[in-house]
Amino acid sequence: MRSKLGLFTAVAFACLTSVALAGARPPGAPSGFDRPPTDDEMRGRLREICTQLVINDGKKAEVAGRRCGCYSKGVVKAMTPAERDEMRATGKFSPTAQPKAKKFMASCRVSG
């Protein structure tokens, strides 16, 4: 489970960076956006990345979509404003947000 959390984190904002750079805009925030991503953008990007990883792990797209929707909504909602700001700034879950992400991975059956 720990490796999947790390992979979600690393891939999440790396992909956000590539999306932003594909638009030929110079990144203004460490996450690669020309501005910090909104909660909805973070949630959507985490869901997309999670879904792809779960599909690659052998699950059907429908199952992956449900599980990853649960995960992305839950984890972003559970994070404090400071934790979301840190994720926007660094592209990573803060040490205090990591247990929340692990909790939602387990409860939403993302890792199993």
What does the model show?
With 112 residues, the chain is mainly alpha-helical. 69% of the residues lie in helices and 0% in strands. The protein is globular.
Features:
single chain; 112 residues; mainly alpha; 5 helices; globular
Strand content: under 5%
Distance between the termini: 9 Å
SSE pattern: HHHHH
The gross shape turns out to be: globular
**Average pLDDT metric:** 78
Assign a percent range to the helix content.
55-70%
Q: Let me know the largest β-sheet.
A: none
Helices, by number, come to 5
Total count of strands: 0
**Uncertain parts:** 13-27
Supply Rg.
Answer: 13 Å
The helix-and-strand class reads mainly alpha
Compact overview of the structure:
This protein is mainly α and 112 residues long. It has helices at residues 2-22, 39-56, 61-78, 81-90, 98-107.
Topology:
Elements lengths: L1 H21 L16 H18 L4 H18 L2 H10 L7 H10 L5
Helix pairs in contact: 1-2, 2-3, 3-5
